[in-house]
Write a structure and sequence with these properties.
This protein is α+β, with helices and mostly antiparallel strands and about 250 residues long. It folds into two domains: about 70 residues, Winged helix-like DNA-binding domain superfamily/Winged helix DNA-binding domain (Arc Repressor Mutant, subunit A), CATH 1.10.10; about 170 residues, Beta-Lactamase. Helices cover about 45% and strands about 20% of the residues. The chain has ten helices and eight strands. It has a six-stranded antiparallel β-sheet. A two-stranded antiparallel sheet has the order 1-2. A hairpin with a 2-residue loop joins strand 3 and strand 4. Helix 5 packs antiparallel against helix 10 and helix 6 crosses helix 8. The longest helix is centred in the C-terminal third of the chain and has 23 residues. The protein is elongated, with a radius of gyration of 21 Å. It starts with a helix and ends with a helix. Keywords: DNA-binding, Transcription, Transcription regulation. It comes from Cupriavidus pampae. This is IclR family transcriptional regulator.
């Protein structure tokens, strides 16, 4: 369930991030599709909380630095071990492809870290974006790492939608893919969400949470070196599991 007021607040923030200039309530209302009165109320609330300030000289509102300060404070409280991002960056540099870390959230895989390739043609995704479990390498890795009961509970409510040319569109097809992936020890997607994009992934359970790591990029570059990239992602998950178990012992 989504909350309209929360969505409208995020719309306002994203518009300021994109436009980078003071804007009037009427301009914001038009940009967000909100009624003028609703937009005015939201702007006044954000102003009262210190997130917006009015500039009478420039004729509009602008974002203060408060949101940036809060974001910095949140970054300092990162639940991931401090070695995780450096190792992801090292993997990105070795393979020269985009490396992502995703987490199971509900019935989707949500990206929590993204280290983009520096190549001009590359896989691009944002932190916070999510993918269906059946249509992504990280999603299938998460499913394959769950207990059978957990997996069945999630799949019971899944509605398969064809996203790419090679999308899996049936429960039987997905289970067969997971079985094959478990046998070889890693997971992959091939044009299943975006055409001509492939990814290699593995996942692990850390405490009560599931995480997956993947290397993703154009299929023409990924598929010839599947085994090499598979060794990278499985080594990463193996190291994380070992570190977690050692800390918990």
């Amino acid at each position: 369930m989504t909350v309209p007021a929360a969505g409208r607040t995020l719309d306002i923030i994203e518009i300021f991030a994109r436009e980078r200039r003071p804007m009037s309530v009427s301009v914001l209302a038009k940009a967000t599709g909100m009624p003028l009165s609703s937009c005015h109320g939201l702007v006044k609330t954000l102003e009262a909380r210190g997130y917006l300030m009015e500039s009478k000289t420039q004729g509009g509102y602008y974002m203060t630095r408060l949101l940036g300060h809060l974001a910095s404070a949140i970054e300092e409280f990162d639940p991931l071990p401090d070695w995780v991002v450096p190792q992801l960056a090292e993997m990105r540099d070795k393979c020269e492809e985009t490396v992502v870390l995703a987490k199971l959230t509900g019935d989707h895989a949500t990206y929590v870290e993204v280290l983009e390739s520096e190549q001009s043609i590359r896989f691009i995704v944002r932190v916070g974006d999510s993918r269906p479990l059946y249509a992504s390498a990280v999603g299938k890795a998460l499913l394959g790492t769950m207990t059978p009961d957990e997996r069945e509970a999630l799949l019971a409510g899944v509605k398969f939608v064809k996203r790419g040319k090679k999308s899996i569109t049936t429960r039987a097809g997905l289970l067969k893919d997971l079985e094959d992936s478990q046998s070889r020890g890693w997971y992959m997607s091939q044009g299943e969400y975006f055409d001509d994009v492939s990814a290699v992934a593995d996942a692990m359970r850390i405490g009560k949470e599931y995480y997956a790591v993947a290397i993703a990029g154009p299929s023409s570059r990924i598929e010839p070196v599947l085994d090499r990239y598979a060794k990278m992602v499985t080594a990463f998950t193996r190291n994380w599991r070992s570190a977690f178990e050692a800390r918990s012992a």
